[in-house]
């Protein structure tokens, strides 16, 4: 479904991605894990066309994404922090996003689950500038799921949400995963990743260190908890003199 | 493309800064037309304000607006629309909103109180200047990711065109005053959009004598229909070229 072919990217002297070759298939829920600055965000951004790789190509459904933006109608993206035009209301933002897809997507297929579950209708006329960080996050989630996309890219989806909202969102992600969608997740909350994902992609220094099924990993390492596995992964990669990762 | 512009304009028009800008222009216009018995003098005073305030507000507001909507531009670029559409919707959204503010603030009072060709020239020049500085601001904004740096560049551009440039030209003209520099000074003018706008209006107001030595040459050149036409085309080029450069950079930019 998504194929990265030898993607490299440098910012100035700093190499962020180095010869990334990857294939994601339908039905996978991939947890993308790696230390800060390891290239996770750049990987996601290059898939979305926000960052243009120096070399290599990315294919979505066998279509090269370089000169054609139509593939993005298949993607629902939830950014880490949502910043929206402050004077628009939630209703107008949703209208705009629907307008952009007019003719591409049938408006009957819209998925209002998240909007209903988060009770966003009650604050539909509120200006986006007046919303709290958590509420903005809810709006971002609503937009990501609204068009029932085949691919979901969720960047730290539960960060900033209250426990109830976070649970609702996780339920929704789980539901979409079971429908056979491709889900790419980044998070520093490993328990969330463990609940939701089927595969683990571990990136460090712009290179893929590991891309495996979670169940297989658990067998290999003889561990039942993802945090332990990742701790061991990082210990192998990092020199022993460095302090342990904060979550261990 | 108009799918996005509509919402950008809607957002900006409710911006308090744009509202205050409109109100300020309206107050200044009414004041000048009210205080000056001679409408020509009113226009002239208004011109001086416009040549300073319009570029300053346009360039600063556009830059700040661009950086404030940066994350939103990111989100838009994850939607099924092209970079060109995103850029143009920002450009036109900001441009149309600021032009609307100018039309309400300066346009309406001028048409009501001094609806001559002179008044209309002033409005046209104000609108063109607005768009020129929106273009320059976007060019400055796409060049750097750092907000403070972007605003700094924008301020420097305004400072250069509104204050420093005239000083340079004057120094050059004085140092080489032994040579015939009429043609050169004409050429220097085309390199500064503010000067172009100023001269178009001054010529329309028929007070070019105030311009002194080179006034005659300007009079000769700019008073003809062709002269004014060329000046307007040059101003339009000042809109298109920076905007086009900014678009080219934005197309390849990593957000």
TrEMBL record, chain A:
SUPFAM superfamilies: P-loop containing nucleoside triphosphate hydrolases. Keywords: ATP-binding, Nucleotide-binding, Transport. Pfam families: ABC_tran (PF00005). GO terms for molecular function: ATP binding. InterPro entries: AAA+_ATPase, ABC_transporter-like_ATP-bd, ABC_Transporter_VariousFunc, P-loop_NTPase. Residues 2-230 form the ABC transporter domain. This is ABC transporter ATP-binding protein. It comes from Flectobacillus longus.
From TrEMBL, chain B:
The keyword Membrane applies. Keywords: Membrane, Transmembrane, Transmembrane helix. Pfam families: ABC2_membrane_2 (PF12679). The chain crosses the membrane at residues 49-70, 91-113, 119-139, 151-176, 196-218, 225-247. This is ABC transporter permease subunit. It comes from Flectobacillus longus.
